[in-house]
Specification:
single chain, Four Helix Bundle (Hemerythrin (Met), subunit A), about 230 residues, about 5% strand, Arc Repressor Mutant, subunit A
Length: about 230
């Protein structure tokens, strides 16, 4: 009789994972494992152990893997399982370039459609960003800054596009990515300065610059963690 394979001890899912629906939970948790180096490029994804760690059946784990295959994180092989892909630095840069373009577009829409009170709200959030070094608080304030811009754009389509984008870093971005707090502060300040001057195009450009810089920091973090294919 063949003995059962011992269960793999996996770390607890972070708070971001816990807040998602079951299929999304599985996908976020697998991203967490890859980012933390628990699952390495070429390694088989232990579906049973992941289901146990999340207290889920294998069905949402498979759903999560299908989503991750579409995003390029894993490859599913018939009758063999899912295997972690080596990530690509250019793909990460492209993701943050797109974020910058979307938020820049949202800034233009916001100033054209419902600018009243927006600049003051963004300035208030930017000041709070300057006054804290707590990553959890920075995460809250940065999210509020981006949300205020998107809400003022009054574009359901922008929200749909943003919901469809993938978080490359699980957990608190500003804890996980060295230097991200400083980039966020400088970017928010530059956006507010441009809006105070009535220069919407400059503000949109500053949004793009900020997200590009965050993307480079993510690339550096992924390189440090050995998540890219060897040259």
């Amino acid at each position: 009789m063949v003995s059962a394979k011992p269960a793999r001890a996996l770390p607890a899912p972070n708070d971001t994972v816990r807040r998602r629906s079951s299929g999304y939970q599985a996908a976020d948790y697998i991203r967490q494992l890859i980012f933390e180096g628990q699952l390495k490029p070429g390694e088989r994804v232990p579906q049973d152990d992941i289901a146990e760690a999340l207290s889920l059946s294998r069905i949402p784990v498979r759903e999560g893997l299908i989503a991750l295959e579409r995003e390029g994180w894993v490859t599913i092989e018939l009758n063999r399982g899912a295997f972690v892909n080596a990530l690509d630095a250019d793909a990460i840069r492209d993701s943050y370039e797109l974020f910058g373009l979307i938020y820049g577009f949202a800034t233009r829409c916001a100033m054209a459609r419902s600018a009243e009170g927006l600049v003051d709200r963004l300035a208030e959030l930017e000041k709070e960003l300057r006054d804290t070094d707590d990553p959890a608080e920075v995460d809250r304030l940065a999210a509020a800054f981006h949300t205020a811009t998107v809400d003022a754009a009054r574009s359901p389509r922008i929200k749909v596009v943003l919901r469809a984008t993938t978080r490359l870093v699980t957990g608190n971005f500003f804890e996980q990515i060295p230097g991200a707090i400083d980039v966020e502060r400088k970017g928010a300040a530059a956006i507010v300065r441009a809006l105070r001057k009535g220069d919407t195009e400059k503000a949109a450009d500053e949004y793009l610059t900020m997200l590009r810089r965050q993307g480079e920091l993510v690339v550096s973090a992924f390189e440090t963690r050995g998540l890219f294919a060897a040259a």
